[in-house]
Specification:
Blueprint: E1 5-9, H1 14-26, E2 29-36, H2 55-68, E3 72-76, H3 78-94, H4 101-120, E4 125-127, E5 132-136, E6 142-146, H5 163-167, E7 169-170, H6 178-187, H7 191-195, H8 210-217, H9 221-225, E8 229-231, E9 237-240, E10 264-269, E11 274-278, E12 284-295, E13 305-310, E14 318-325, E15 328-338, E16 345-350, E17 353-364
Parallel strand pairs: 1-2, 1-4, 2-3, 4-7, 8-11
Antiparallel strand pairs: 5-6, 8-9, 10-11, 12-15, 12-17, 13-14, 13-16, 14-15, 16-17
Helix pairs in contact: 1-2, 1-6, 3-4
Length: 366
């Protein structure tokens, strides 16, 4: 007896393919869907393989579906994706912030596109190959939890999913380690997937050169921002830079300025086209304001609640207390953390569970 229809997002890679085949074997009525978010051929990047949006990936996903007797569709969401994710990416850099396009895509585009098509196809569930888990808490809310394999855990990029989306989501890989998934691919008859290179680049920046992307995307950007100044924290000019959008908080390499000691980007001011440089300790902060909050495990928190907060994807997290404000939260860390970058996500955890998350607005109180 079927466990119900599930729409599985299939990129053509190992994780999503094993997800689809695993659910198919477990008795779900699987429908595969591959989303075209970006035209790789127009990226002007090198020929380096990217993890999605190329014809080989589409063919790999379709072949797995054909081999196992379930339907597969290709969904073109380039307009939906571009209007929001790419414009947000560009606007954030032009505002002197550091965006996380994968969070924006998951939150506003990918899951909504899946749910819309799932409803049209009569699917009860949607599924992806993310390394995280979803369950219903005793309070009735749906919770995202860390995946078993902490080296692959992707709960950080899923904090923006609301309760409606989580209630329809299955994440089968959260209970497994990557090594186990590779072995499953071999056992299922797809040894080539276990050897396939994984992509860690942004899908629309496949050569990992976001500066080049910005230059191609914004007409005359280099001329508009060239000639700004590197300054120290007192405002003293240290030398010319190539334009504030081409730098990020915490950056040390590629500054092309000699000060006789290591220098780090500590803040960015787009209004004056200045980039502040300082020493490593100048990156230390113990407080950060966060807006655009999405609550996951609870529908809010009481002032002073303790949480482990991650301020970037590969961050191990640091203990903090959460305090409500009119516009979101203030998080106060027990110890200083380095490189708080406005525009990135702050995700707060209780054990392995995501309490919620939001967008970093600014840091304060060194």
């Amino acid at each position: 007896m079927s466990k119900g229809k599930v729409l599985v997002a299939m990129s053509g890679g190992i994780d999503s393919t094993v997800t689809a085949l695993m659910l198919h074997k477990e008795g779900y009525e699987v429908i595969g869907i591959t989303m075209k978010t970006w035209d790789y051929a127009t990226s002007n990047a090198s020929s380096k393989e990217t993890g999605c949006c190329n014809i080989d990936s589409f063919n790999d996903a379709r072949q797995a579906a054909v081999d196992n007797g379930f339907p597969h569709f290709i969904l073109d969401i380039r307009d939906e994706f571009g209007d929001f994710v790419i414009e947000n990416f560009v606007e954030e850099y032009l505002a002197g912030r550091t965006p996380n396009p994968c969070v924006m895509c998951n939150t506003h585009i990918k899951w909504r596109a899946l749910l819309k098509r799932a409803n049209a196809l009569g699917c009860k569930w949607i599924a992806t190959g993310h390394y995280a888990e979803v369950r219903q808490h005793t309070n009735g809310r749906y919770v995202i939890s860390k995946g078993l394999d902490e080296t692959k855990d992707q709960s950080y990029v899923l904090w923006g999913l609301d309760q409606e989306l989580l209630s329809r989501t299955i994440l089968p890989l959260g209970k497994y380690r990557k090594s186990e998934i590779r072995q499953m691919a071999v056992d299922m008859g797809y040894p080539e997937l276990a050897k396939k290179n994984e992509s860690y680049e942004i899908c629309f920046v496949p050569d990992n050169d976001y500066r080049g992307f910005l230059k191609r995307r914004v007409d005359g950007l280099e001329e508009k921002v060239d000639g700004g100044w590197f300054v120290d924290k007192t405002g003293k000019r240290l030398g010319k830079h190539k334009g504030y959008p081409f730098y990020t908080i915490g950056q040390r390499k590629g500054l092309e300025i000699a000060l006789g000691k290591p220098a780090y980007v500590t803040s960015i001011n787009p209004d004056t086209n200045t980039v502040v440089l300082g020493e490593e300790q100048d990156l230390d902060q113990n407080e950060v304001s966060v807006g655009k909050i999405n609550w996951v495990k609870y529908d809010g928190v009481t002032d002073g609640m303790e949480a482990l907060t991650k301020i970037r994807y590969k961050d191990k997290g640091a203990l903090s207390n959460l305090y409500n404000t009119d516009n979101g939260l203030i998080m106060r860390f027990y110890e200083n953390v380095k490189g708080i970058a406005p525009g990135q996500s702050a995700v707060f955890y209780e054990g392995n569970d995501v309490i919620g998350g939001g967008i970093i607005q600014k840091g304060a109180l060194k």
